[in-house]
Amino acid sequence: EAALKSSKVIFVIGGPGSGKGTQCANIVKDYGFCHLSSGDLLRDEVKSGSERGKRLNAIMEKGDLVPLEEVLQLMKNAMVSNLTKTNCFLVDGYPRELEQGLKFEKEVAPCTNVLYFDVSDETMTSRLLERGKSSGRVDDNEVTIKKRLQTFHNQTKPVIDYYKRFGKVCQISAESGIDEVYVEVKKFMETKQW
Ligand code: AP5
């Protein structure tokens, strides 16, 4: 518990297709953080074929948020099982609503910083439609992408506003190419002693 509470946690937030996963992979290479994606953890559960996985898949297929407790538990377990390797975590795709952030900070660890990738809806949509051709993801279709964007604006944007009040948000425009965006990410990473 104490080890968990003293870990460094960067919440990585951005709309669907903003490049969270892509940039996290870059950070892992250069800074050795442990990357935990809530979406990947949920999709692993779906792949297991469990009843729980089927319930989760039905929600993700629609672009809605899965219940807080389900995702919080997955994140916490994944952090605990990686603690022997590192205590620096990129928490990608979580929190997606304010309550998730508050509960995480109370029950898991305080948020050190928030990395927010700011991208227009048009750019996110075209990236996801492109990826959808080969990703096999049930939510990379026009209807669900629209819903995911709505969910982001209505439920996740308030999380960013909340952490801005504490000066914890590093906002990066992620409209440009992957390498250009990573230049900005690096600038942020270099300002800290991890
Ligand atoms: P999740 O898996 O988190 O999906 P998402 O947020 O919609 O984001 P993506 O993983 O699709 O995109 P990304 O931002 O990582 O971008 P990527 O790097 O892949 O969540 C899926 C679902 O799970 C949710 O809808 C919800 O139902 C549920 N869920 C997850 N977390 C939850 C939570 N906390 N609470 C409740 N429910 C939760 O890039 C996308 C594409 O663009 C790639 O092809 C990439 O190559 C390309 N690309 C990236 N950057 C650039 C760039 N700069 N220029 C050009 N192309 C780029």
From TrEMBL:
Function: Catalyzes the reversible transfer of the terminal phosphate group between ATP and AMP. Plays an important role in cellular energy homeostasis and in adenine nucleotide metabolism.
Occurrences of domain AAA+ ATPase (ranges): 6-115
Subunit (UniProt): Monomer.
Native organism: Biomphalaria glabrata (Bloodfluke planorb)
Name of the protein in its database record: adenylate kinase
Source lineage: Eukaryota, Metazoa, Spiralia, Lophotrochozoa, Mollusca
Location of the protein in the cell: Cytoplasm
The organism's place on the tree of life at top rank: Eukaryota
